[in-house]
Amino acid sequence: LICEAYNLMKDVLGMEQDEMAQVFDEWNKGELDSFLIEITRDILKFKDTDGKYLLPKIRDTAGQKGTGKWTGISALEYGVPVTLIGEAVFARCLSALKDERVKASAVLPGSTIKFTGNKAEFLEHLRKALYASKLISYAQGFMLLREAAEVNKWHLNNGSIALMWRGGCIIRSVFLGNIKDAFTKNPQLSNLLLDPFFSERISGSQPSLRQVVAQAALVGVPAPAFSAALAFYDGYRSRVLPANLLQAQR
């Protein structure tokens, strides 16, 4: 999600790295305060020995150590839609196809639409979209833990799990304290999105998530994780889904 936010700043808004670093610095002072936002700011500021920014020199291909893949496999085995981590893993897989992407970039057309909106307004949409998507991803993760606990007869203390991550892990953030509070208030909470604190924030942020996903699609900048967050949100809040047609087809 953070990589996609950076890419949207760069390719939709045409921002320079020092400007992006300032944005991430501001974000790190609010509800997005986290280790990963902090190091993203520092990476964007970092210059090589030649005085030029280091980030553009780093090859845009990523492998993965396995944690995301294992989570995706578990999600499929337990039948839980952990779509954001799945999309993040697939985005890494796609990045690894560098030679193919270079060839495709010369053959396959993209969008001719350019961003013409208000830059500051879009950045605020992006901040809220990142917060909403992060919340949705955590909600999905705890859905998987809940299902695994039910199947395996585990008794998990979800609040303590959130605090453990806050203690010494790359996903540590202020946000995890809010998750701990939600499970302390209601240990039987079925989904984080239904906690009053988070439902209020997702309600306020989801319009911005729509703006970001729509703008990314129009301009032709890939945003698979943001898109997955919105698709899950709209699916989860749907009283009726088209699975009745699927069942009829079967």
From TrEMBL:
Record's keyword terms, sorted: Gluconate utilization, Oxidoreductase, Pentose shunt
Coiled coil: none
SUPFAM superfamilies per UniProt: 6-phosphogluconate dehydrogenase C-terminal domain-like (SSF48179)
Alphabetized InterPro entries for the sequence: 6-PGluconate_DH-like_C_sf, 6PGD_dom2, 6PGDH_C, 6PGdom_BS, Pgluconate_DH
Gene3D superfamilies xrefs: N-(1-d-carboxylethyl)-l-norvaline Dehydrogenase, domain 2
GO molecular function: phosphogluconate dehydrogenase (decarboxylating) activity
GO biological-process terms attached to the record: D-gluconate metabolic process; pentose-phosphate shunt
Boundaries of every 6-phosphogluconate dehydrogenase C-terminal domain copy: 1-250
One Pfam family cited in the UniProt record for this chain: 6PGD
Pathway(s) of this molecule: Carbohydrate degradation; pentose phosphate pathway; D-ribulose 5-phosphate from D-glucose 6-phosphate (oxidative stage): step 3/3
E.C. designation(s): 1.1.1.44
Transcription regulation listed as a keyword: no
Repeat among keywords: no
Entry-linked PROSITE patterns: 6PGD
Family note: Belongs to the 6-phosphogluconate dehydrogenase family.
PANTHER family: 6-PHOSPHOGLUCONATE DEHYDROGENASE (PTHR11811)
UniProt protein name: phosphogluconate dehydrogenase (NADP(+)-dependent, decarboxylating)
Organism: Endromis versicolora
